[in-house]
Structure formats: C-alpha cells, structure tokens
Amino acid sequence: MQISRRRLLLGLGSTVGAVGASLLKPAWAGAVEAQACDGASPVPTTKPADTGPGKKFGTAGEVQFFPGNTIICHLPPTSATHTEVAIAWQQLQDLTGKTNITWLPPTSYHVTIFEGVVDAVRRPGNWPHGLPLDAPLEECHRYLAERLRQFDLGVTLPLRFVIDDTPRQKIRTAIPLKCIDDAEARKLSDLRNRLSLATGIRQANHDNYEFHSTGGYYVKQFSNCEASTYQKNFQAMLSKLKKKLPIIELGNPEFTQFSDMSHFERQFYLSSRS
C-alpha cells in the first residue's frame, strides 16, 4: 500500500514533536505524567486555606499585603542546595501549571526556624506577651529586634536537615524537612525554647513544629483527579531531590520582616554572644 508524501511528512512531524517534548520533561516525571488524569485512584482534594480577604493570597492567586516578621535561614543562593531546589520546583511547576498554585520566586526560598508574628493574627501565643495585642506592627518589630540583638544563638552551626519524603494525603507545596538526628533535634528544640522565652511568643504548634521550605501556595482547588496527579508528581520530585541532597546545611538564622510571602527582608543575623 502506497503512503502519500503528505501523510508521511505529517507522521514524521508528529514523531519529532513527541521526541522533542519528551526531552523537555524532567526524567523523574515520565512515568507519572504518562498516567492521564482519568479519575483512577483519585485523591480527595482540599480547599485552599490561604486565599481570600485578609489572607496571604487573593482569590485569583495574587500576592496580597500580609506583613509580619520571622526568624529564618535563607537557602544560600550560590549553594548546590538552592540550585537543586530551584530546579525541582521549576520542573514541578512545568508539570502543574500556575492555575492552582502560586509559585514563589527562588530568592524567597528559606526554612523557618522560629515563627514570629503576622499583623493579621493577634492573639496570645502568636503575639509577644510583653506587648498589648493592639500595639502597632512597627512597635512589635522594634520590640523583637531589641531582644534578638542581645540573644545568644548558642548553637553549633550549620543546622542540619534531611528531606522527609514520607507520603501523605494532604496537598503540599513545601519540602518537608526533619533534623538529621536526635542530637540535632535537641539542639533545635533548645534554640526554639530559648527564642520563645526571649520573644514572648509561643505558638500552638511550638512543640511539634514541622520544618519545611515552601515553593508555592495552593490557591485554587484541584479536582480529585488533578490532586492525584499532582501528588504523584510531588512525591516523585521529593524522592529525586532527597537523592541529590542527602543533607541540607544552613547557617546563621536571620531576623526578617516581610510585607507579603514573596520576599523576606533580612534585618540582621542572630549570633552567639560568647
């Protein structure tokens, strides 16, 4: 049977296009992406928690004014850790798109060591107990800065974490981390307890805080099937990243201020006094 020249060229074009597209996909994603979102084994989806008036993001996923302060370690921008994390998030973004998740800029990548305050959440525990709940945010910034400049970090650096790739049902847009061993966990727990005493802040999750590094925020609800596909891609990304980064090391924590979730402005590093 003869094949027309037009049909042959169309066939070759489709093949070349498919090969080209496959080269653009991250290697870890092939098997997962090949499973179309056909409703098989769907994951129950959840509604986004950080969108709406007075929250971190608007209903269209736009960054909103949400000021506060916090103590973090930025991922060192020239480090292998930052490079690999940025690549991983970009690959997941390429697979997921921007409709359901607002992705953060790589310059914002960090690990929170101790949660400070947000202006929108003023209640005992989330606000310094030495300040009235209606104190202006600028006064809170000054209050905490005075105490933290005198604070003795008192820990051996670096702070060492490993990626926790334990599968979970919840939609996650942050890389879960845990201390590398029991000694490191005790070190971080002691540091957080002393920070709590110095700042007068002790949030409800103080004793079971889960360290993480956020790459984006879930802003528009997935369908159950979309959630299933995302979860598989996210889990594959975590497993691949854990092999590339068996240990994540971070330096001096920083006291930072922020106006929204896209940028955390360093005020100063916490340091050891002795």
Automatic annotation (TrEMBL):
Residues 1-29 form the signal peptide. Keywords: Signal. Residues 56-170 form the DUF1868 domain. It holds the Pfam family 2H-phosphodiest. This is DUF1868 domain-containing protein. It comes from Undibacterium hunanense.
